[in-house]
Amino acid sequence: MAAGHASIAALPALHETPGLLGLSVLGFNRAQSIAFLALLAALIAGPFFLYPVFLMKLLCFALFACAFNLLIGYVGLLSFGHAMFFGMGGYVSAHAAKVWGFTPELAILAGGAIGACLGVVAGWIAIRRQGIYFAMITLALAQMVFFVCLQAPFTGGEDGIQRVPRGSLFGLIDLSRDMSFYWLVAAVFLAGFLLINRIVHSPFGQVLKAIRENEPRAISLGYRTDDYKLVAFTLSATLAGIAGGTKALVFGIATLTDVYWAMSGEVVLMTLVGGLGTVFGPAMGAAVIVTMQNYLAEFGAWVTVIQGVIFVACVLAFRAGVVGELARVLKVRL
Amino acid sequence: MLEDLLFQLELGLPQVVLGLVNGAFYALLSLGLAVIFGMLNVINFAHGAQFMMGAFVAWMLLNYGGIGYWPALILAPLIVGAFGVVLERTMISRLYKLDHLYGLLLTFGMALIIEGLFRNEFGSSGMPYSPPEILSGPPIDLGFMFLPKYRLWVVVAALVMSLTTWLVIEKTRLGAYLRAATENAALVQAFGVNVPRMVTLTYAAGVALAAFAGVLAAPIYSVNPQMGSSLIIVVFAVVVIGGMGSILGSVVTGFGLGLVEGLTKVVYPEASSTVIFVIMAIVLLARPAGLFGRA
Questions:
Q1: For chain B, where are the E strands, in sequence order?
Q2: Beta strand A173-174 pairing with A168-169
Q3: CB pair distance less than 8 Å for B236 and A139
Q4: Whole-angstrom distance between the N-terminal and C-terminal Cα of chain B?
Q5: Residue-by-residue DSSP string for B225-266
Q6: Do B110 and A308 touch (CB under 8 A)?
Q7: For residues B223 and B104, is the Cβ–Cβ distance under 8 A?
Q8: pTM
């Protein structure tokens, strides 16, 4: 990142206000506490008003986007290959649930585990370069994973893994009904969301932000920035794997779509629309894009065109995203 | 054991030679990317889409205008290059002061738009485009294999075009301005050179190179809207392997990797689609700046 250029997710320093109801424990300021309570309310009330499967899809993508934002928003690394973690997580969770008979919570964790393993390897290779090269390397690695998935026997090639059972939570509570599975998905999302927030506000997260703002300086202060970047990359990949695994169980299918490069682009778009480097932006962006895809599904290839237009519009005129602009207008940090 | 391998190689030699054809496209596309990146500091994600546009413009010239292959080889790059001028002037030029990643995101969006529009208009299935008569006769006997004339032409044309680009950049006055502006744009502008116009024309030239490759590809691959997007990701890997510091470096890397890919098709076909990415990973571990890159 060249000096003198505006950092991709630099936030203006704002006066911090303490959080409400003890939510500052989570690192939230006042505005964020209100937004978080609104999010909680929406999570609880949502399935009574909207189709639970749609909401579950939305939450999986929201978690995926939050995981992606951990890298781009707080370390300044643009990964263009996050589909490999999302898609592989989906395959492994589906395989674990269907072939090995894992209960859903273990299957989702298996998705996270594969995300972590892939993340360590891909991160170890990719962090050798910065900026644009980092994006190209992650994209190429993801394409390699795509070809492996296309050929490997356990992924089922073009058919994918179909008819994946949702199973019962801890082997006790039946989750085949959408409404009951929704609560598991909501819990997974909330846990991931809070974990990311915890990471960002930890001393570790402060070092990440220092790397984003000025890496040479962070190095000169004695931080081994490559180690920090690798850990952040792995955490992000793990959560992306969990999101992919959860999505595979929601729909009972894991396919090549989720490892394809277009999926890597979609998560970038969601985060960009919501607001890079904001706490609530990625979830908001995922909601916008998933809703849009839902309503425009019948228009076929126009969805791609519209996504492209949104990309261009966001980059040219709307770089702070929905939540970022809102925060600017309200003069708070969200 | 060794004899077996030699026999296999002999059988596979045509595959290896045909790998050069893929290598020709890698070389032309990575060259265009390197030229654009050197001047604009933007990775042109729309490069694959512009490659596809080149092929489609050639197809449209033939089917709507009755204009054949040879004029199309010049007209299509000009048309797509003009389109590049519009893109650079109206959009990309607004981003030079921002983080380079925004250029990548913008051109990614453009690629989605272009590809989507073409898919709406022409569907996903390919359109046939036949090679010109003079190149479509019986294949040439090389002793160990029969090489279709058109494929030989692709390799020769790509080599000539790469060499021309190298000569223009390294040996002409215009090229000297370009290299100087890459080093220090403000200083060159202070000497009275119109740097913004040069940047625009550089982008157009890079885009035209992609379109030229697209016209070359039209008779080999079927002309379809997705033909560029999967190719461009491989080309990104090629660029990472070669490093974008040197023009000749990207040409050599492009052809070399085409050969390696062809060789892999013979020895271990399952790995032929992933071998370039594996090489990329190895090069990054051993020499992060790339084979010809400056750290």
A1: 140-141, 146-147
A2: antiparallel
A3: yes
A4: 43
A5: TTTTHHHHHHHHHHHHHH-SS-HHHHHHHHHHHHHHHHHHHH
A6: yes
A7: no
A8: 0.90
Residue B241 lies in a domain: no
Question: Is A301 in Cβ contact with B112 (below 8 Å)?
Answer: no
Backbone dihedral angles phi then psi of residue A213, each to the nearest 5 degrees:
-75, -40
Within-domain flag for B143: yes
DSSP notation for B38-76: HHH----TTHHHHHHHHHHHHHHHHHHH---HHHHHHHH
Sequential pLDDT tens for chain A (334 residues):
343 344 555 554 445 566 666 676 677 888 888 889 999 999 998 888 889 999 999 999 999 999 999 999 999 999 999 999 999 999 999 999 989 988 899 999 999 999 999 999 999 999 988 888 899 999 999 999 999 999 888 888 888 888 888 877 787 777 778 888 899 999 999 999 999 999 998 999 999 999 999 999 999 999 999 999 999 999 999 999 999 999 999 999 999 999 999 999 999 999 999 999 899 999 999 999 999 988 888 887 788 899 999 999 999 998 889 999 898 888 888 8
- End-to-end alpha carbon distance in chain A: 25
Phi, psi (5° rounding) for residue B131?
A: -70, 160
Number of domains present in the structure of chain B: 1
Question: How many CA atoms lie less than 13 Å away from B15 in the CB half-sphere?
Answer: 16
Look at residue B1 and tell me if it is in a domain: no
Across chain B, which distance is largest between two alpha carbons, in Å? 67
Q: Is residue B26 part of a domain?
A: yes
CB B162 within 8 A of CB B258: no
User: Do A268 and B236 count as a contact with CB atoms less than 8 A apart?
Assistant: no
The residue range of the domain holding B33 is 21-225
Residue A321 falls in which region: left (phi positive, over 0), alpha (psi -120 to 50) or beta: left
Angle between helices A281-296 and A321-330 (to 10 degrees): 130
A29: helix, strand or coil: coil
Which chain A residues are Cβ-neighbours of B100 within 8 angstroms? 1-2, 5, 131-132
